[in-house]
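Researcher: Go.
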Amino acid sequence: MIKRYSLTSNGKKVAKVHDQMHEIIKTKLVDKLTVKYLMDELNIVANFLNDLYRLEQKF
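Model: Structure:
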């Protein structure tokens, strides 16, 4: 038996504000990183992390 849940109208409002908060935090983090590092440097780190993630999936 699968239980299904739904949000109340207040719950939907809270969820929307919560999602907006995460977007604001993400934007601020990206802004701070792009001021400090060149995009080429960030791409190298992103590629490394993607490679690491793929390798971990094999274990």
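Model: DSSP finds two helices and no strands in the chain.
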